[in-house]
Each structure stands twice: as C-alpha cells, then as structure tokens.
Amino acid sequence: MSAPIRQEDFIQSVADAFQFISYYHPLDYIQALGRAYEREQSAAAKDAIAQILTNSRLCAEGKRPICQDTGIAVVFLKIGMNARWDASLTIQQMVDEGVRRAYTHPDNKLRASVLLDPAGKRQNSKDNTPAVVHYEIVPGDHVEAICAAKGGGSENKSKMVMLNPSDSIVDWVLKTVPTMGAGWCPPGILGIGIGGTPEKAMLLAKESLMAPVDIDELIARGPANRIEELRLELYDKVNALGIGAQGLGGLTTVLDVKIMDYPTHAASLPVAMIPNCAATRHVHFHLDGSGPAGLEPPSLDQWPQVAWAPDTEKSTRVNLDSLTPTEVASWKPGQTLLLNGKMLTGRDAAHKRIEEMLAKGEKLPVDFTNRVIYYVGPVDPVRDEVVGPAGPTTATRMDKFTEMMLTQTGLISMVGKAERGPVAIEAIRKHKSAYLMAVGGAAYLVAKAIKGAKVVGFADLGMEAIYEFEVKDMPVTVAVDSSGSSVHQTGPREWQARIGKIPVAVA
Question: What ranges make up the beta strands (E) of 230-366?
Fold first, then answer.
C-alpha cells in the first residue's frame, strides 16, 4: 500500500499546476496550431494565428499568462478507493488553498475572475476561489488530477440540447457552431458529450477537452468505432464552415473534436458542446504519497518557429490623441491599424455603472469625447511591468451599451474581440463609428504595446476598473466600419464558399 498523501503535497501540486498552465500551452495543442498556420490561406486568419503562436512563446519564456482571463479553476480528481490522506482539510479546501496560492503568486499574479453571490452583489473573491471540483472514486490507492483553467469567453459559448433519438447530432452541431460567434477564440477544440442525463452530457463534454490533440493520428489510421467516425466527420464539416481564426474566415476553425459518450434513456439523446479556446490550459499529474507532483517544462525547441511583428508598411498608424470622427469614418473593413497614444478601458461592470450614473444625471469620472475604449480586464503587473497581460474581452457583451456610449458620452470607437451583434452594428452605422478587433489569445503580446497604465475611474471594480492605457503600435483590425460592414460576416461567408463543402445560405 502506498504512503499517505500529505496535505501540503496535494496543495502545492495544485498550486504548481495552475501556475504551470498559465504560461505553458500543452505541446500537442501548440504544435497542432503550428500545422494550422502552415496550411492557412486566409491572410487575416494567418496573421491572427501568428500572433497567438508568438504570444505563446513569449509567455513560456517570461512565465506570464497566455491570456488575461486566467480562467475559472476546474479540477478533475480520480481518487483511489484505498488512498489514504495525511490531512486535516477537506479535498475542496485543499484544492482551494492550492488555487489561492497559484493566483496570488507574487512573481506571476493571475487574474481573479471568480465572483461570489452570482445572482446578487457579484463580489470578487480576490483569489479565484472556490474551484469547481469533479470527483470519481476508482480502484487503487493513488490520486490522479487534471487541473484546467477555463476562460469565460469559451465557457459562455457552451451549448446543451435534448435531441430526439432520431435527430442528427451532426446537423445540430453544424447549425449551432455558427451561432457561437468568435467569442470562444477559435481555432480551438470542441468537446462534445453524448448521452446520460443533461448534467452528465455537460460533464462528458468538459472532460473530453482534457485529452491530447490527436486528430491527425486518427486521420492517418482511420476510425475504429462510431465515435471516431463522428469526430472525423465533425472535424471536416466544422472547418468547412469557414469561420476561421478569430472568426475572420479561414481554413481552420477547430484543431480537434473530442467526444465522450454514456448510455442514456431510450426516449432521450442529450448532447452537450463546450469549446476550448486558443488559451487551452490543462495539465495532468499523479500522486502516490511519495511527494508533490513534478511538472516537466516543455522544450521551447518544439514550439513552431513563428515570430509576429507589426507590419508598419501595410498597417496605418493612428494617433489616438488627435483622432477625429472623420478619420474613424474613413476606416475600411479589414484594414489593419497600429494604435498610438492614450485609450480608455472598460468592460461589463464599468458600462453598467456608467449607465446608472447617466440615468441619474451624475458626472462620469472620465471624459469619453473623441476617445477610444478598449474592452479589457488586465492581469496585475509584476516587477517592472506597467500592466500585466491585457488581451481583449468579448465585445458582444457590451452590445447593449453601445448606443448609450456613442450617443451620450462622445465615444467614437471601440476595441475588443469577436463579432458585434445587430444592435451594436446598427449603433455603429448610425453614429459613423467603428469597431476594432484585437486578437484574443495574444494577451501578453498586446501588453508589450502598452507603455503606461493608470486607473482613472471605478477603482473599486478591480480588473474591471476604467484604466487609461498609453499604447505604441498596438495592432488591431477594422472589424465593423462606419457603414456597418462586418468582417465577421463577410470573412466566414467568403471562406465557406471557397472551401465549397457546405452551401452558403443566401442572405
């Protein structure tokens, strides 16, 4: 029988795991992304993938987060029936202490995104606890753990349906994936759970994402069962949708499709789908009582040799400090810009408070006239940084505030990730504004363009406060221009037609 698993060993293993995955992509994922980069024919998608790959290497070298959204902590535990513990805390308490240590580590602070009282005050727990823990009791006397950090952008796109037994799973997936937009930061992985009960299907979908990327091996050897046939069919057909990297249109939307199934009721066909984003983060470790887990850093020699840099010849430099509505109105869809000067930031909580203050006739803490707002919640800085990783958050969540901001504050442009919905696009068209897209999954790379940062409003909101950033050559793409033309609509439509496997619906 193995020695007891010590409390401190378990806690430190969890802490080390969440630090490790904050800056190391799984090697299988990053190599698959490198192969997608080599295949990609869409210039916009290829540029986005290059930024993600470059960001990945920078994070591995600098040991700083791949994405500013360092995720909600999810832990899968397989606990041996005969495992013994030398511990006074519960397993949940030990996991939470490990998460607390990881997210408050002084050399690599991670963003605390977990809010208590979710239907009420939504107060930040400050240390990203509690974690979500899934338990399975298995034979043996050891403990296996998978630690994953799931960002809100991909989690928010999770889908679940109760199909009729005669319904097509493939048809549902192909109908549903386009409705997910680009907020989950493709190219990523689709996890699909089939069967059981509704909650079991969701758990299967989430757990499936923890497996290695192996679709190329599956293609090479061929399917051995119905689930593998389904994986190959969905991989081919989802990519044929032409959604592409960051939703800009291209050949690769998913790097793999994972499926787990479970027996279900004769009257039911539960199907769940959960995407993993470009910041795919998970690691597996094993404890047998001999000490804490040892996590082997991957060799950067195995990273794709891609180095992105701003294209100063093809991109237009923009001076934010003298930006005018006329200049904004002149930008064209797909045009690449390099932003310079001072921009403001703000996301969900800040917009909600601005709305409340305007309704009461109160003065805002900052003047938005002729300013650009960046939808971001940065990681706290360490050492000599002015700000930690600061990639964009999903702009769609701010759609309902767009008309208010453009009408009542003097704002003239916005920066975020993913597409804008009809309400926001109409507001942009009406006010001759523009929406600019930064690459999700390239947070540390974006932060390198931020030369100054200070909180200028709503300091109590933490990472959701209003900052003023001073940027130098921050790369963005015009995603919605002043006429309301959106590259997130035109790009995928063009590439779906080019790929030619799925008919393009006539608008």
Answer: 254-262, 269-276, 282-287, 316-319, 336-345
pLDDT, tens only, 355-394: 999 999 999 999 999 999 999 999 999 988 999 999 999 9
d(CA 186, CA 247) in angstroms, rounded, equals: 7
For residue 297, CA distances in Å to 10, 13, 61, 108, 116 come to 19, 14, 11, 16, 34
Residue 246, CB-side half-sphere exposure with 13 Å CA sphere = 32
Residue 133 near residue 91, CB atoms below 8 Å: yes
Per DSSP, the three-state class of 382 is coil
Per-residue pLDDT for 298 more than 80?
A: yes
Quote the number of domains for the chain: 2
Query: Does residue 137 form part of some domain?
Result: yes
Residue 465: Cβ-neighbour burial (10 angstroms; 0-12, 13-18, 19+) = buried
Q: Which of helix, strand or coil describes residue 113?
A: coil
Average pLDDT estimate for 234-241: 98
Lookup: tokens for 11: 């806690």
In a domain, 504, yes or no: no
Kindly state the greatest CA–CA separation across the chain.
Answer: 75
pLDDT digits (tens, 9 = 90+) for 263-276: 999 999 999 999 99
Main-chain phi, psi angles of 496, to 5 degrees: -65, -40
Residues paired with residue 199 on neighbouring β-strands, in sequence order: none
**Contact criterion met (CB below 8 Å) for 343 and 473:** no
Give residue for tokens 């923009």. Answer: 318
The CA distance from 449 to 378, in Å, is: 13
Q: What angle do CA 172, 178, 181 make, to 5 degrees?
A: 135
* This model's pTM is above 0.85: yes
Asked whether residue 282 falls in the same domain as residue 328, the answer is no
**How far apart are the C-alpha atoms of 468 and 27, rounded to whole Å?**
36
Cβ–Cβ < 8 Å for 186, 180: no
Strand ranges (DSSP E) for 263-396? 269-276, 282-287, 316-319, 336-345, 372-374
Q: What is the 3-state secondary structure (H, E, C) of 147-192?
A: EEEECHHHHCCCEEEEECCCCCHHHHHHHHHHHHCCCCCCCEEEEE
Range of the domain at 372: 316-491
DSSP 332: -
CB 153, CB 417: distance < 8 Å:
yes
Cα 12 from Cα 148, distance rounded (Å):
15
Looking at the predicted structure, is the pLDDT value of residue 507 above 60?
A: no
Q: What is the pLDDT of residue 506?
A: 53
Beta-strand pair 336-345/123-124: unpaired
Picking from 286, 304, 336, the residue at the C-terminal end of a domain is 286
